[in-house]
Amino acid sequence: METLANLPFIRLAADKSGALSGVGSLTLPTGTTDLIVISHGWRNDVNDALKLYGTLIGNLQQAAGGHFTDGSRSWAVAGVFWPAFRFQPDLSLLPDSAAEAAAPAGGALGLEDNDLPGDMLKAYAAEIADVLQCDEGTFVAAALKGASGGPFATDFMKQLRDKLTADPTIADEHKRLLKTKGSQFVADLKSTATVPAQYNTLEPAHGDGEAAGLREIVKKVQRVFTGGRAAIATALNYTTYYEMKARAGVIGKALAPVVEQAAGSTIRVHLIGHSFGARLVTSLANEMATLRPASLSLLQGAFSHNGLGVSNARQGGALQDGAFRKVIAQQRITGPVLVTHTRRDTAVGFAYPAASALSGTVASDFVQIAQNYLGGPNDPYGGIGANGALSLKPGEDKAHVAVLQNGKPLLAPSNNPAAAAAPVLAGGKVNNVLADAIIREHWDVANPEVAALVWAAVR
């Protein structure tokens, strides 16, 4: 059997529907007491996923020390590999030098002479055709015609939507993308900021979950490309975002019986997910009929901050219970639910809500959304990796602040950061950990400090 960080390792390679490639079941070594199921997020590169898994599991063992095998515990790891395509938050932005070269004398780019070059749209459409597993020639031709707007845009959007993975749990969140007449959707994108994602990462103040100067980040948004081809490229880009989100949910649901059958009634299961992989493992827990996992670790999760919560009238709340409310309401996790969050994460803190807002609202309203509260706890499109799990009932969560002392991670109550101690997470609750001190960006989840938090969840 293959090993990873000196532990038995089983690959769960799933297609976009969740069907496993090569094997139809998960077989564990005799004597296994604990199974870690781990999922990557935004990447579809096997080597990147393996590096994430190996580094995090290795650091987890280091954090545990001799306690990793206390009580004759015997561990195995199941790594999920699923077809995720990287969302391109800056697709329609030119590098600064190129933008300056293209600008007229007045410094502002003109709206008529500023469309995305045709060869760039053609190349990007070919990439998306591969992701969606459709005929490249037909798809690219339709994309280029769709840039003309009108019935061509409607025809193209129909082709695009027909190839998407259906996930009813997010249909309402993306109703503009999925339901608006194609010609209107493309016209909206053509006349507004196509990809509002040129921003700088500002380091938050210590212990402050709201990055200082968020409005200054939003002010750096620049409209570089506008026009029909830019609109089609943006539609493609946000479609990949929707598709990753849908696939994560569908694949997690499909894997639930596979994991249940392998674990039976005696093996403790620990779920770990990064980015959209956090959505995948949460969906997995949500769909289990007989098994209650021992822990759930959501590392910079890329799904709604209301996904575990109840309907809530507060600003930024949801009009209905979260898609994975059963995980909390039915106490599907016997031990801690770990949620790391930081506004230093520009993918979940900015690009995620930008994509959600633009595919769920009228595009012309987006600038106002951005100026008011983009990505924060008052943003209905905010992400759990930016703000933590919100809209929970009293007593369902506990808030912590991660701090470093002599290079070691400690946890403190959110109302008293000075009272820091070794990480201890509350069982049966959501543990929202403000991770400004230990997570630098969206990808920074395999470091020893984060691994120590994960060990606090799984031990």
Task: Please describe what this structure looks like.
With 459 residues, this protein is an alpha/beta fold. The chain folds into 2 domains: 3-85 and 246-458, Rossmann fold (3-Layer(aba) Sandwich), CATH 3.40.50; 96-244, no CATH class. It is 38% helix and 13% strand. It has 15 helices and 10 strands. A 10-stranded mixed β-sheet has the order 1-2-4-3-5-6-7-10-8-9, with helices on both faces. Helix 3 packs parallel to helix 9 and helix 9 (228-263) packs across helix 10 (276-287). The longest helix has 36 residues, at 228-263. Residues 89-112 and 193-223 have low confidence and may be disordered.
**How many structural domains are formed by the residues?**
2
* Mean of all residue-level pLDDT scores: 83
Number of strands: 10
Gyration radius (Cα, Å) is 22 Å
State the helix count: 15
Parts with pLDDT < 50 across at least 5 consecutive residues: 89-112, 193-223
**Shape type:** globular
CATH fold assignment of the largest domain: Rossmann fold
What percent of residues adopt helix (DSSP H or I)?
25-40%
Distance N to C terminus: 25 Å
Which architecture name of the largest domain does CATH use? Answer: 3-Layer(aba) Sandwich
CATH class of the largest domain: Alpha Beta
Widest sheet, order of strands: 1-2-4-3-5-6-7-10-8-9
Structural class: alpha/beta
Return the string of H and E elements: EEEHEHHHHHHHHEHEHEHHHEEEH
Largest sheet: 10 strands, mixed
The fraction of residues assigned to DSSP E strands is 5-15%
